[in-house]
């Protein structure tokens, strides 16, 4: 049986015909969901957080030439492995991921008032760092977008167990698609292995979920997939404000 920790190790995944069939069917569903929304709405954006799920989506979007604008948020605190991945993806698929950056005046004010690593001090300070470095750039990226796509899955954490494939996002007044909501972690990694999709090398060091460098750590066997994100906080707090209900 694949354990939580070594699930992320791509070499250990056994791919059989049944798994290939499941992934093929689920991939077709993803393409059809995105296509349906492209036909119905003119502007569809993909918030690419550069995780394993996002790599599956990038591969499906690029191979099927779906008219979707992919963007990522560079918080200024990403690990070097994530920057390397951006370059790898751009080289492989021959397109540019649009990058959004935080407002430099807000970052300066926050850091000069609270300290360079103030997010460890309290949930409020952590959330205000995420608000400045992630949420405000996301809001700008989604302005005028009628649909946005995420790589979120139900089994990622207790805050996501009821995640739907399609929902209305009140905050951004847009349709929100979570095409991989019912995919298992095994299916995500099997897709990556079958299709030779690039991925963040930190995943091979037991980082199943990767965000900013100071707020992400490796996990141990049996831990929740997102246990390494803001690990010093209560699990109920573990969202950064990007996916507000
Ligand atoms: Fe700041 Fe950490 Fe949130 Fe990144 S994840 S924006 S460093 S609090």
SSE arrangement, N to C: HEHEHEHHEEEH
- For the secondary structure, the number of strands is 6
Name the shape in a single word: globular
- Walk across the major sheet and give the strand order: 3-2-1-4-6-5
Average pLDDT metric:
90
Helical content class: 25-40%
What would you note in describing this structure?
The protein has 245 residues and is α/β, with parallel strands linked by helices. The chain has six helices and six strands. The chain has helices spanning 17-40, 52-63, 80-93, 104-114, 123-142, 185-195, and strands at residues 44-47, 69-73, 98-100, 147-149, 166-169, 174-177. A six-stranded mixed β-sheet has the order 3-2-1-4-6-5. Strand 5 and strand 6 (174-177) form a beta hairpin. Helix 1 crosses helix 6, helix 2 (52-63) packs across helix 6 (185-195) and helix 4 (104-114) packs antiparallel against helix 5. It is globular and about 55 Å long. Bound molecules: iron/sulfur cluster. Iron/sulfur cluster binds next to helix 5. Residues 75, 77, 119, 126, 129-130, 133-134, 211-212, 214-215, 240 line the site of iron/sulfur cluster.
